[in-house]
Write a structure and sequence with these properties.
Layout lengths: L2 E5 L2 E4 L6 H7 L4 E4 L13 H10 L2 E4 L9 H13 L4 E4 L4 H15 L3 H10 L8 H5 L4
Parallel strand pairs: 2-5, 3-4, 3-5
Antiparallel strand pairs: 1-2
Helix pairs in contact: 3-4, 4-5
InterPro entries: BLH_phosphatase-like, Prot-tyrosine_phosphatase-like
Protein name: TIGR01244 family phosphatase
Organism: Vreelandella piezotolerans
Length: 142
């Protein structure tokens, strides 16, 4: 499992297997945000087994399922609330890490007006380009 930091206490990764939740816990994460949609691929038929295992391991678990590029204000607010309320460090994931990165950027921009340049740089360092989202991110307001 490879992770990339977005900010202090928040990292992203690509698709986690159920067994990798043990590693998530061993690496010191306290919470997981899952942005995968149940049934989106053979390796993620649903999130119930993940939620159950996370609970067994003492990990906080939040499921905010989103389709690629389809981020509603409710999804963004749920991600922002999770960032504010979950115990850190937090690991967010989807199939590639892209949705998790996008939601993080929108949530940070909306909830605390994080500087756009900071978000763009953090996302790029994590391997994701937010330039296609620049205009929408500029319009985010708390």
């Amino acid at each position: 499992m490879q992770t990339q930091p977005l900010e202090q206490g928040v990292e992203i990764t690509s698709a986690l297997t159920l067994d990798e939740l043990d590693e998530v816990k061993a690496r010191g994460f306290n919470a997981v945000i899952c942005n995968r949609v149940a049934g989106e691929s053979y390796d993620f038929p649903d999130e119930a087994s993940y939620r159950h295992k996370a609970k067994q391991l003492g990990l906080a678990w939040v499921h905010i399922p989103v389709k690629p590029g389809e981020y509603s204000q409710e999804d963004i607010q749920a991600f922002a609330d999770s960032l504010a309320q979950l115990p850190r460090p937090i690991l967010a994931f989807c199939r590639t890490g892209k949705r998790a990165t996008h939601l993080w950027a929108y949530a940070r921009r909306q909830s605390d007006q994080c500087e756009l340049a900071t978000l763009l740089t953090a996302a790029k360092e994590a391997g994701f380009d937010l330039e296609d989202h620049r205009q929408a991110l500029e319009g985010q307001t708390p």
